[in-house]
């Protein structure tokens, strides 16, 4: 007779950190439901969580190391795999130098405490400057604003949506994405609560989204022009004396405000109307309502970060919230107070940006990394410092970074490649060895990152729900093995005493130490005793203490942003005119997708094809496009053929394709995904289109030509 058991854990799939209730019969998962007793997520869950069962049971999932041979992929032992990887890496570095190996860390790194806590030491042990990650296809502008304004890249303010009276959402679709740089499980009910207490929610987006449908007002905006709207709003706040610094009066140098007045002077409303395509009356109403609301918060995500002026946009959002008295205050933008807090009050602010430049294109370093939009050219361009080998972890850059076709070609040219991943997919198929870690329900969880970004303070530790299969390894164990070999500290398993093994650092130990140093007096045991999680209350005012600037002031106008305004003003009107004749491509997310990697779950991909080109009826008619038939979408980088979806939910002049599809490449093993392949949007996004200030990829607002296919 098998026993039944009910277990609780945090869902590791997206930023929302929902609590799950999982029932098991023996080792078989019977059900996955929302944990009603989780004080933060209150029983909320989305369809992806149920697919954790599919991932756990997926016959395509890799569990043991495999090596590419002339006879195809062969399983090899862990020892053989670790030795070969490290020997090869050492050989390549001896021949070409340390920077010849590049690393790429993808999104799930941040959702696995083993990977986020142990991969940095591995990368350090490799001693390469060629570090890449999904950060530069995503939130890099937020980090740059955090570093320059408040002193730390993790000081990214969160919209206090549980208490705000006016939520302005720009370029985010939290009803589909479940929130980003805003951990807010059950965002739909949190949004409804704003309306129920008499507040208002406004969405600004080139597409009428799932979030727009729940908001009070939707405003169409021409892609990549939000920066003009923000500048116009800030100008109005300054000109009309709507500035209310409140308790931040002492945190802001008045000379900075004067400087800002001069900088924003050229951005008058006429210019904003012309650039954004939004009517003047609508802009005026928005400014008035935002400034007059008892509390208001402007929040911008992917649609504002991954555009040509992403850095400026995220800086300006902070400025708008600060000037209108909506910063570090209930209902405004606030800093969370995580129980495991890596930001020390004694730390000095340090600008980890632009300290060196990429070899080929001269894009700036950030946080010790290079922009991912430069990865392919750094492999393909010969010369001193060329990348010859690659280590990817939790990433699928062939589908998730701009111009994936070029990157694929670059990967084929490498002398050696290793991937730490659970699938043989569009990226890992180029590896020589794949090292798969245990994943999902088999691993413990403490959210090291997303408590910094949560709309409420809480803490939760989850034990593994299921034991990992015998002979498999946790991600941190794999990193430890690689690190000890790289550092020449490895002793063969047979000769290493068990006591030495026991002394090995585990992620649990790090979390325990982190909690001990934290502000709440929590121990790991406390969290183990409370499997639903511990509520630590609403967000608190944290300024000026939380600022790492020596003078404890907010740097309202960092020089790099002031300077970048010139780039905005000098933006060639010729380029703009030629772009206007093209359509502008933007992305979209769907509740049942998770970037590129969950399409091997039948329950998530079944139903009608979601990988379509959304286009306005008038734009479709002009090009002779018919609903359901194919179109060809072309850009400087490449072209794809994709079914047309004609809809008025997208504004004229704009088309939308979801990213993460394109499972039609040779050499992968994801049978369900391959049967629902779609095409990759990133075969037309352009690696040369970046926010030149930050180096962040501009995957939104890509000029394309569309014809019937
Ligand atoms: N055009 C366009 N491109 C985009 C975006 C967009 O909006 N539009 N969004 C961007 C954003 S925000 C992001 S974050 C990136 C994401 O880009 P990536 O992180 O590069 O891509 P993912 O699809 O998230 O790939 C995750 C990989 O991790 C593997 N994996 C899953 N779980 C585990 C695990 O437990 N351990 C290990 N080792 N591997 C695991 C999966 O098999 C998969 O290979 O894409 C970016 N690309
Ligand atoms: N279901 C699901 N959830 C996810 C993910 C997923 O793939 N699927 N991915 C996770 C990840 S890695 C991330 S980073 C988050 C992202 O979370 P979000 O940022 O909320 O997600 P997106 O759907 O990319 O939302 C971007 C919005 O910006 C709009 N947009 C595009 N260009 C512009 C522009 O120029 N201006 C304005 N104002 N809007 C613009 C798009 O139409 C879109 O609605 O989601 C996370 N959650
Ligand atoms: S919203 Fe995110 S965290 Fe919550 S159940 Fe869905 S995937 Fe998991
Ligand atoms: Mo992301």
Give a brief outline of the structure.
The chain is an alpha/beta fold.
What key phrases describe this protein's structure?
alpha/beta, 17% strand, 7-stranded mixed β-sheet, Rossmann fold, globular, binds iron/sulfur cluster, Barwin-like endoglucanases, single chain, 28 strands, binds molybdenum atom, 26 helices, 709 residues, binds ligand MGD
CATH H-level superfamily of the domain at 144-334: Dimethylsulfoxide Reductase, domain 2
Chemical compounds bound to the protein: ligand MGD, iron/sulfur cluster, molybdenum atom
Query: How many beta strands in the DSSP annotation?
Result: 28
CATH class of the domain at 144-334: Alpha Beta
Please report the distance between the alpha carbons of the first and last residues.
Answer: 59 Å
Shape: globular
- According to CATH, the fold-level topology of the domain at 144-334 is Dimethylsulfoxide Reductase, domain 2
Give the count of helical stretches: 26
Radius of gyration, Cα only, in angstroms? 25 Å
Q: What is the arithmetic mean of pLDDT?
A: 96
Low-confidence stretches are none
Strand content: 15-25%
The percentage helix is 25-40%
The major pleated sheet works out as:
7 strands, mixed
What is the structural class? alpha/beta
Q: State the CATH architecture of the domain at 144-334.
A: 3-Layer(aba) Sandwich
Give the strand order, joined by hyphens, for the main sheet: 5-4-18-17-16-6-7
């Amino acid at each position: 007779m098998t026993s039944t058991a009910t277990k609780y854990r945090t869902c590791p799939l997206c930023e929302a950190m929902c609590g799950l209730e999982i029932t098991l019969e023996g080792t078989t998962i019977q059900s996955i439901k929302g944990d009603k007793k989780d004080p933060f997520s209150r029983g909320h869950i989305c369809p992806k969580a149920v697919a954790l069962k599919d991932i756990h049971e997926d016959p395509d999932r890799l569990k043991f190391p495999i090596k590419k041979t002339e006879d195809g992929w062969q399983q090899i032992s862990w020892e053989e795999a670790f030795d070969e990887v490290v020997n090869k890496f050492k050989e390549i570095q001896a021949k070409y130098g340390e920077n010849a190996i590049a690393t790429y860390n993808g999104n799930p790194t941040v959702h696995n405490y083993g990977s986020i806590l142990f991969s940095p030491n591995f990368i350090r042990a490799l001693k390469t400057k060629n570090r890449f990650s999904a950060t530069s296809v995503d939130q890099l502008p937020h980090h740059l604003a955090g570093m320059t304004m408040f002193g730390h890249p993790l000081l990214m303010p969160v919209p206090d949506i549980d208490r705000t009276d006016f939520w302005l959402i720009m370029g985010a679709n939290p009803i589909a994405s479940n929130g980003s740089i805003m951990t807010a499980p059950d965002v739909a009910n949190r949004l409804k609560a704003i309306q129920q207490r008499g507040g208002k929610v406004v969405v600004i987006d080139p597409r009428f989204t799932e979030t727009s449908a729940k908001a009070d007002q939707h405003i169409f905006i021409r892609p990549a022009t939000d920066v003009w709207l923000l500048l116009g709003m800030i100008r109005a706040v300054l000109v009309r004396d709507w500035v209310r610094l409140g308790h931040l009066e002492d945190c802001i140098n008045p000379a900075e405000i004067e400087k800002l007045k001069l900088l924003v002077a050229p951005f008058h409303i006429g210019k904003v109307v012309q650039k954004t395509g939004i009517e003047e009356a609508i802009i005026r109403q928005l400014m008035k309502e935002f400034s007059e609301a008892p509390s208001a918060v402007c929040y911008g995500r992917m649609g504002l970060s991954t555009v040509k002026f992403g850095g400026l946009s995220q800086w300006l959002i902070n400025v708008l919230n600060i000037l209108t008295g909506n910063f570090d205050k209930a209902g405004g933008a606030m800093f969370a107070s995580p129980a495991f807090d890596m930001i020390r009050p004694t730390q000095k602010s340090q600008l980890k940006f632009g300290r060196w430049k990429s070899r080929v294109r001269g894009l700036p370093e950030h946080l010790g990394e290079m922009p991912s939009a430069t990865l392919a050219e750094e492999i393909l361009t010969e010369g001193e410092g060329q990348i010859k080998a690659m280590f990817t972890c939790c990433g699928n850059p062939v589908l998730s970074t701009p111009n994936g076709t070029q990157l694929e070609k670059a990967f084929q040219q490498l002398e050696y490649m290793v991937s730490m991943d659970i699938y043989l997919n569009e990226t890992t198929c180029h590896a020589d060895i794949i090292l798969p870690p245990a994943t999902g329900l088999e691993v413990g969880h403490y959210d090291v990152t997303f408590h910094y970004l949560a709309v409420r303070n809480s803490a939760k530790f989850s034990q593994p729900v299921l034991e990992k299969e015998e002979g498999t390894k946790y991600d941190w164990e794999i990193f430890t093995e690689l690190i000890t070999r790289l550092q020449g500290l490895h002793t063969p398993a047979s000769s290493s005493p068990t006591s030495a093994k026991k002394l090995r650092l585990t992620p649990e130990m790090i979390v325990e130490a982190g909690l001990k140093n934290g502000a709440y007096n929590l121990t790991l045991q406390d969290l183990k005793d409370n499997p639903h999680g511990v509520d630590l209350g609403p967000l608190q005012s944290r300024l000026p203490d939380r600022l790492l600037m020596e003078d404890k002031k907010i740097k309202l106008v960092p020089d790099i942003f002031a300077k970048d305004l010139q780039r905005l003003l000098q933006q060639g009107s010729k380029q703009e005119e030629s772009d206007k004749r093209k359509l502008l491509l933007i992305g979209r997310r769907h509740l049942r997708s998770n970037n590129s990697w969950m399409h091997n779950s039948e329950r998530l991909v079944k139903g009608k094809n979601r990988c379509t080109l959304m286009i306005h009826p008038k734009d479709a008619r002009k090009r002779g496009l018919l609903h359901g038939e194919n179109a060809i979408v072309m850009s400087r980088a490449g072209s794809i053929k994709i079914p047309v979806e004609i809809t008025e939910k997208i504004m004229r002049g704009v088309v939308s394709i979801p990213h993460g599809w394109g499972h039609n490449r040779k050499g992968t093993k994801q049978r369900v995904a391959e049967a629902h392949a779609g095409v990759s949007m990133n075969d037309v996004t352009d690696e040369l289109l970046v926010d030149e200030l930050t180096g962040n990829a501009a995957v939104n607002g890509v000029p394309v030509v569309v014809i019937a296919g």
